[in-house]
Amino acid sequence: MCGIIGILGNDPVAWRLVDSLRRLEYRGYDSAGIAVSEKAGVRRIRAQGKLSGLESEIRNNSEPKGTSGIGHTRWATHGGPTTRNAHPHKSGRVYIVHNGIIENFKLLKDKLTAKGAEFQTDTDSEVVAHMIDDALSQGASPRDAVASVLSKLEGAFAFAILFAGDDDLLIGARRGSPLAIGHGEGENYLGSDAIALAPLTNKVTYLEDGDWVVLTRQSVEIFNEDNQPVSRDVSFTQATTMMVDKGRHKHFMAKEIAEQPDVVGHTLAEYVDLAEMKVDFGERMPFDFNNINRLTITACGTAFYAGQVAKYWFEKYARLPVEVDIASEFRYREAPLSDGGLALVISQSGETADTLAALRYCKQHGQHLAAVVNVPESTISRESDLVLRTYAGPEIGVASTKAFTCQLTVLACLAIHAARQRGTMDEATERRLVGALSEVPRHMNTIFDGESHIDQVARQVAGARDVMYLGRGVNFPIAMEGALKLKEISYIHAEGYAAGELKHGPIALIDEEVPVVVIAPKDELFDKTVSNMEEVAARGAKVVLITDAKDVHSGGASVLETINIPAADSFISPFLFCVPVQLLAYHAAVFMGTDVDQPRNLAKSVTVE
Ligand code: M6R
After folding, report:
1. Full-prediction pTM beyond 0.90?
2. Which of 417, 438, 459 is the last residue of a domain?
């Protein structure tokens, strides 16, 4: 989603802004721009598409030499992804970059239009530049103008605002969307996350919701939503200054799939004692699962599917009732939550707007708050009572892969911990399950040995109009995750179904043109899944069977391709079956020539609802 950088520096700032924008590319964007304060006024340069377009514009237009400026990568919400709609937006002296959505912009725009304002863009963001400019023209100072405008805005936002004629002033504000201050030596910065700020400084202050800040090179003044001066902590960010690169891989997604044995291993090492073969959350746990009568899991997208897998584990092993909901639904459906329940949110970025809103809803309703998060300095981390980190490292590919398996790792350990605490699992079972988890990295590596075969299968899937994924039990969410991966990066329509649900409707879609990916672990549901496979094969579907069974007696059903994975304890089957479905999607997309790491229309971090 959109990215913000602002720099009050001592050296020419144009390329420094671009460098930080480059670090924000992973969030997904469709245009970019910068505005730089110069003696003669502010120079604004914008371009549609990737940063290379903006770089060419900067080179071709005599590079700005000013030392303060703002930059933005835009993921279009209001108005198409054109140069005209790219940020920064301007009105008079005011230049602004914005993340989020101004929900009452139409009303505000109508009022300004009635007063004679002329708008250059279709965006909601431009209205804010006009409002601040309007307040300035009535004699307000920049800080008073911003304060008065913030109180009139509805929706979610993070801003960085530059004022022509004052090259030592930057004002930032946040409500809903994240914004951080970077503290330098005689320089100060604003950034939408610590990754953008990392090459500039490791001293960071995260603004709280409703905060706004007035920066000069030598000073930082923070105000809360009541315009009262407040002080916020300075922390030392762990965000790496290194640009994460693709290593020997063609895409970040390929690298991140390949990293899974390592990062699952690192994550596991945090939560299990391998010498004793038991889970170990140390002193972290602020509550006792014996006092928890219900677990509410909320998340979006891939993280939601991790939550769905966890439901099977918590219910089966810990006998704890679990409700899993898509955060965008949960936040508005006024779910009754009894006191003392545990709310668990799952998020790679820790900034997903709907997941954050779900967390806050649960907080208001007296729940214990736990979060499984990959970015430790994110808003969700900061607002949760218990943060269970995943150690996936930066995930750059928009399609989530390694974050998912690390989420599963934490959730599996937590389910075992809950089961042991509630007395629903004996020590021997814990040892068996922890032993199985410790084998996940090795089994994943074995699956990679068969990657070239999966590539061949993917080429056969690549031409399809629709693809169906079937799974049962704990692998039903893996079927949905497989379908999500395929549609996200190859743009092929795909759906994941519970195999038993097939004959209640979806089987009508099956014909010779539809590949059906059947996820069939050799567990207690295996025979039933194979029966469902026969039903689709009998109707001509091209079956791609993924299984750890040695022999599949398919009763004559014709299987187009079989992807064999190593036999393992069925507890860890979601970890292993998700790897071939990730690879299938990846190779189909590569074969089709799509933009694998930054697929169309998608953003890495969805900070608007
Ligand atoms: O950062 P989060 O885990 O909260 O993100 C949730 C979803 O937006 C994310 O999983 C999305 O569905 C991915 N593109 C899936 O590949």
Report:
1. no
2. 438
